[in-house]
Amino acid sequence: MPETNHQPIAQMAHHLNRRFIALVPILLAIMVAISGLTMIYPLVHRVWLGEHLNWFDQASWREIIDMIGLIELPRVFVGMCLLMMSMGLAMRARLAWAFSLVVFVPALLVTIYSDWGITSIKIVYDLVVVAMLIWYWSVFNRSSLTAGTLFAVASVISLLWYSMLGSLYLGEEFAPPIKDMPNAMYFSVVAMSTVGFGDIVPVTHPARLFVVSIIVMGITVFATSLGAIVGPIASGKLRQMLRHKARKSMRKNHVILCGTTPLAISLFRSLTERGELVTVVLRPGTKHDYPDTADIVFGDAFGAETLKEAGVEEASHVMALRADDPDNAFIVLAVKSFPNSKARTIVLVNNSENLEKIRRVNADVVFSPELLSAELLARAISGESMDKSLISDLFFAKPIDADGTVQTQTN
């Protein structure tokens, strides 16, 4: 008795755990977004109070940056990166997870060197978020093009941000001096792309080292960003090609199933549970309930090219199980047009009035659920006996010969 009481509790606990795991990406995305917002808040608060009105009264960009605070600008950028990565985490993207962990390193360093009233609380909070990201690493298992794009955008913007601020801060150490935003952006893009026109050159050692850092990071950022975007596309296409090739090579002695009727879906499940290889043929754009792992060929089921792609010459059975009886008849005729095919054809008759017509296509098995169910119910009500031979005769209405006589045995 106690064991039966424990079983529902264990099932409920398992269900609650699965629900919690499903919510983990959203929870961590919110936590990372909160961390990003706290990084941005101090500067936004200062702007809200009107301090920014005095910043641009300074004589040079160096004085403006010093007045804003050299630590504020990287803090805002790190916060923006965390906000962008939170969107990727919500989509369970592995790249967003990895980049979030990387961004939390400068986030912690900036927080440590900041003079906040909540510095210690922020450090503890960020460490908790990092610990949770590491603990639930297996949840973020998707290769997302969106996350790759976010990573690329964040990387390029961060390098541009760094290049422009450095160019403006060290502006007097270049020839000619960099004194405005357009020139800073121009020089940054030229240096990041390693073009190097030579119209603006560094003249001091700090400026030269700064340019070297832009060039090195530019090569790294553009290479990784390109890989982050192209990688998921290329891997997805490659995976699709390999899967298609593997499925095509396995299409031997298999069953070809045409249709999306409830009978077809149920038969697919029964056959796959028994270890049979099944290839499904569907019209393009057809909505279906087959699993994502099903081997599906989209095309005209009574078209030679589609049947050939489905491996009709190597198939053991072809089942025409569509809801339209003429379509099923045409599928059988199309299969019989392949002289090298030894596949047995099974055709579904949805309307018993079409039974005699569909028999004339000479399918190996003509299956009429309508006649089967009616005869079984009638015999059950009248008390007549039912044996295996009777059910076989009812379940599979036999095809007829060219002279119109019903065959006594199926082929």
Automatic annotation (TrEMBL):
Compartments in which it is found:
Cell membrane
Per its UniProt record, what InterPro entries does this chain match?
K_chnl_dom, NAD(P)-bd_dom_sf, RCK_N, Trk_Ktr_HKT_K-transport
Alphabetized, the UniProt keywords read: Ion channel, Ion transport, Membrane, Transmembrane, Transmembrane helix, Transport
Q: Residue ranges of the RCK N-terminal domain?
A: 252-367
Principal subcellular localisation of the protein: membrane
Membrane topology type: Multi-pass membrane protein
Q: Which GO biological process categories is it annotated with?
A: monoatomic ion transmembrane transport
Gene3D superfamilies linked to this entry: 1.10.287.70, NAD(P)-binding Rossmann-like Domain
Instruction: Tell me one Pfam family matched here.
Output: TrkA_N
Q: Which residues cross the membrane?
A: 20-44, 64-83, 95-114, 120-138, 145-164, 184-202, 209-234
Q: Which PANTHER family match?
A: POTASSIUM CHANNEL PROTEIN 2-RELATED-RELATED (PTHR43833), VOLTAGE-GATED POTASSIUM CHANNEL KCH (PTHR43833:SF11)
Supply the name of the protein.
Voltage-gated potassium channel protein
Q: Which organism is it from?
A: Orrella daihaiensis
Q: Quick one: which gene encodes this?
A: kch
